[in-house]
Amino acid sequence: MKNNQKSVLLFTIFGTGHNLVHFNIVIKAMIDKGHQITLVLPENCINKDSYNTHILPYLSHVKIITHQHQHVNGLFLNSWRECGVLRDTILFNNSRYDAILALNCSQIPFLWPIFRIFNLKALKNMAEIKFGMSSTGLNHAPPTIKTKVNNLIRKTLLSLHTDGALKTIDAYAFSKLKNSSPRLQNAYTLIPDPMDKVAIVDKISARGLLGIPDDVFVVSISGSINSHPRKNCPLLISALSDQRINKKICLLIAGKLTPDINEYIKKSQAFQDKRIFVMDRYLSDEELTTITCASDLVCTPYSGHYCPSGIVLRAVKCDVPVLVPNYHWFKFMVDTFNIGCTLKTLTKSTIIDSLNEISEGNGKLRNITAQRMLVKKYFSEDNFAAHWLSQFEGYHPYSFEELLVDYNN
User: Fold this and answer.
1) Angle formed by the axes of helices 348-359 and 233-241, to 10°?
2) Domain spanning 7-133+380-407 has what CATH number?
3) Which pTM value belongs to this model?
4) CATH class name, domain 203-359
């Protein structure tokens, strides 16, 4: 191995959702530099759709180690057990790594600084670990006494990390730390949630591929629709079935569906009126891009979703406006980068009014083309990889602070 080539351990607790997509991006960047890669992931994701798409093509370049961790209830118990999985992985076969990157590390960061003290002898020669988190580890739901106490404990534990040890893709949550916990903000580095490199297609071609007429207004919701019920797909279906809705509006639902949502769709008036198009299966990045390009609007009526959304970022990549909730990261992105509109409330009536207004051209959608190339540069796959690999030679990440300066000039 050449002097500038490193031995790198990539680690995740989960193998679902965006996790393996992120590993795919970093692995591709590291292969180009000749680094040696060991990837640790759960055994139950092997040969699943996401694994076969994002990891299988690179097996000749990557050594795979699997674990069998099962999530348990209770933050501290689960964090401690996850820390044990990471420790055992690091010590496996007495391997030595130049860097350890835990891109999607679940609850490990909460107790890792304490866990490491208890395992100081075993881990004394370990490389520094960089931990990735979808948000900042805090509860961003409306505050109660319980959540305030919980957040105080979480802040205290996460603040034990050294500066820059943690990475987050949530720009809004990161910005809030400036006033609430400057010490914790120093422990974090803000990095992009990456957009894929799949080429966009024009709307007419995309609709031709999907069999959707050119004369309808297409609202889409796509991705892992069955991953959690707070995505509120039934609320959107109900709005499309209401008598007040503009009849030229159609809904495109794309992604693996649960049986109850599938049944709800088929019983809906909008489906009976042939104004709902359904693609009920796992979708490739190419298909998701085609679906987004075929849309006039991407709608994510999520409740309690306090982290970034890949569906929204894909819409930005495809220059399609969004209709999103009026809170947390969604509101931040609309206010900061003019990517669409927000829903004042997550109710059927508000969705109907918003969709009617936008489809009739009265929604005053903001100019999403302004400075969009700068936004795409920050959220690019290459920039995501550069942020994770910035400790090595040859990587020059474009920071969020640089984006804001360039965007507002």
Assistant:
1) 60
2) 3.40.50
3) 0.90
4) alpha beta
Whether the Cβ atoms of residue 315 and residue 223 lie closer than 8 Å to each other: no
Q: How far is CA 4 from the centre of its chain?
A: 31
> Is residue 245 within 8 Å of 349, Cβ to Cβ?
no
Task: Evaluate if residue 239 carries a pLDDT over 80.
Answer: yes
Tokens encoding 52: 């076969």
Cα–Cα distance measured from residue 338 to residue 343, given in angstroms and rounded to the nearest whole number: 14
Are 46 and 40 contacting, i.e. CB atoms less than 8 angstroms apart?
Answer: no
3-state SS, one letter per residue, for 162-180: CCCCEEECCHHHHHHHHHH
Residue 370: pLDDT band with limits 50, 70, 90:
low
Structural domain boundaries of the chain?
7-133+380-407, 203-359
Q: How far apart are CA 167 and CA 389, in angstroms?
A: 12
Residue 310, both tokens: 């890949």
- The two beta strands, 7-12 and 188-190, are unpaired
* Residue-wise pLDDT tens digits, 91-129: 987 788 999 999 987 899 999 999 999 999 999 888 989
Q: Which residues touch 20 (CB under 8 Å, ≥6 apart)? A: 12, 41, 45, 50, 51, 53, 54, 55
Specify the DSSP class assigned to residue 368: T
Same fold, 7-133+380-407 and 203-359: yes
CA–CA gap between residue 396 and residue 237 (Å, rounded) = 44
CA distance 192 to 290: 23
Handedness of CA 230, 234, 238, 241 (dihedral sign): positive
9 forms beta bridges with 38, 100
Q: Which two tokens stand for residue 378?
A: 């920050």
Pair of tokens at residue 300: 């994510």
| Paired residues of 276 in beta bridges | 251
Q: Six-digit token pair at 65?
A: 């180690």
